[in-house]
Amino acid sequence: MRLFGLIGKTLKHSFSKNYFTEKYLNENIKDCQYELFELKDIAEFPSLIERHKATLAGLNVTIPYKLEVMQFLDEIDDHAKSIQAVNTIKISKSGKLKGYNTDYYGFKSSLMDWDLNQNTQALILGTGGASKAIEKALEDLSIPYQMVSRTATEKCLSYDQLLAQPEIISEHPLIINTTPLGTYPNNDGKANLPYNELTPHHKLFDLVYNPEITAFMQEGLNRGAKVKNGYSMLVGQAEKSWEIWENEY
């Protein structure tokens, strides 16, 4: 039996266990099991590995541990190193742990479903671990972007600045929410933006996938914008994780 799983702080609404359990059944993949491992602190990670060392073959990593887990790995893929976040770990037969970032692949493939204008500029809402892969994907797609956070810095606009200068929304037709705002059961949560500036030319991508239509996405729909939630990104990153786990290391 090969054991796979997800580590994070709160996992009761996780997509991963159901997805992989159904995958194993539908594709007749034998002797594989996927479990959820809630960790109150990343310091619990080594004992988790030790406890399941006989069967554990791979892990996914979710908030808030995508950066913190890197200190416990034997090797980090160059791509994940450049992003500075790991969401997939492959455990070799010899017990070596190697980190990867599949969020990048999931987001990039999902975003490319949209026909983006050559002059597209993006706003990335949030600066947490999830935003790192989004930055890298946009850079590789040659899409200029501006970070947005609660506090203005040299590299970040603040939400207050967007409210004071609503024309910034007009200048950035692609807006990507990387924060957990709006996640079930807090469905009403959304970034404080001048939503009246949205038009049918805008595209709103929300990394949240539950609910299917977030409050952020609904603001876009109300004004004719195209919207997408994080489900297709999750499927893309999950499949990339499986590809990594299945390859020799």
UniProtKB/TrEMBL annotation:
Pathways involved: Metabolic intermediate biosynthesis; chorismate biosynthesis; chorismate from D-erythrose 4-phosphate and phosphoenolpyruvate: step 4/7
CDD domains, per database record: NAD_bind_Shikimate_DH
Keywords: Amino-acid biosynthesis, Aromatic amino acid biosynthesis, Oxidoreductase
InterPro entries: Aminoacid_DH-like_N_sf, NAD(P)-bd_dom_sf, Shikimate_DH-bd_N, Shikimate_DH_fam
UniProt name for this protein: Shikimate dehydrogenase
TM region positions: none
Cited PANTHER family: BIFUNCTIONAL 3-DEHYDROQUINATE DEHYDRATASE_SHIKIMATE DEHYDROGENASE, CHLOROPLASTIC, SHIKIMATE DEHYDROGENASE
Domain of life: Bacteria
Residue ranges of domain Shikimate dehydrogenase substrate binding N-terminal in the record: 6-89
Keyword Iron included in the entry's annotation: no
